[in-house]
Design a protein that fits this description.
191 residues; mainly alpha; Flavocytochrome B2, Chain A, domain 1; 7% strand; transmembrane helix
Length: 191
Amino acid sequence: MAEEAKDAVPPSEESLVTSLLTEIFTSPINIFLLGVCVVLIYKIFRPSNGSGAASGPLEPPVPKMKRQDMNLAQLKQYDGTGEHGRVCVAVNGKVFDVTRGKKFYGPGGPYAAFAGHDATRALATFSVNDVKEEYDDLSDLSSMQMDSVREWEMQFTEKYDYIGKFLKSGEQPTEYSDEEDAKDTKSNKED
């Protein structure tokens, strides 16, 4: 028996790899798991070309709003229920047109309470119910909450169109020229 062990030739690395791959790819469970991985990787890395094939029909693009500052009464008109269907939200003193995210911020959406309101406090406290019906100076928020607000503001700035400042009662709006609107449109197209 000792002689048989001496005479046995150890398998080569190549044959070990071949037998291992054969075992892996012939097991039904492994083939199924490989298929699941391929599908998940495809869904993660597939280009989002806006064709709507995976997510259903797309709504027609909404023309960009004219640059304007708004007080709370003006902002409330943009809650998604008006004739124009637009949705605007104020975050940290800035008004954003979030109409592209209407399924989130529009009527029936999970964040519909933000539509036509200043959402700053709600975003700072992570509570959809913390939307105020009057101008909120935010002076009682902690530094951590204000850091969170600034992060939300950056996200809104990257994702949605900036419309103008959110005005306190009695504050005068800025008069924006058509050149500023054109400049904003051009810079958004370059991004």
